Amino acid sequence: MDIQNFQRIGSISNAHVGRDFEFVAKGYFQKQGMMLEANYSVSLGAWKEKKKRQFDLGSLEPPVLVECKSHRWTSSDNIPSAKITVWNESMYYFHLAPPEYRKALFVLCDYSKKRGLSLAEYYKRNYFHLIPVGVEILEYDEKLGIVRTI
Fold first, then answer.
1. Residue 120: closest CA among 133, 139, 92, 104
2. ∠ Cα 127 132 136 (to 5°)
3. Which residues pair with 52 in a beta bridge?
4. Quick one: which of 25, 44, 72, 114 could link to 110 by a disulfide (CB 3.0–4.6 Å)?
5. How are beta strands 102-108 and 136-141 bridged, if at all?
6. Could you say which of 1.20.5, 3.40.1350, 1.10.3470, 2.60.40 is the CATH number of the domain covering 14-149?
7. What would the pLDDT profile of 79-111 be if each residue is shown by its tens digit?
């Protein structure tokens, strides 16, 4: 039986990669004067019924919700379809979240030579219709240590 290992090369586990990336995002927002909590809960729903949902980072003052994704193109430089689905899910949660919150998808910059664009640029170009008004896509370049808005 051939079992594929989708763990990030050089990491202890994908959970560790995610936590480390959330720490980077938290530091970025802290430099902007925002002290965000990990696993920040907010009630959301499509209608009258609401349910608590945890966002990776958030705060009430100021009202901010952040989802962090350190996804990359596949090892063969193809589209990571399952990961794109996760980004779409985040967009749906942002859509359902209270309107007073600033909403940001904080993603890792991963560039595709084959396509000539980053994963975030690809996402915005192809899934623009699923990104709610006001949601920011912030791309972190780990080599340069900078964040840019896509």
1. 139
2. 85
3. 43
4. 72
5. parallel
6. 3.40.1350
7. 999 999 999 999 999 999 999 999 999 999 999
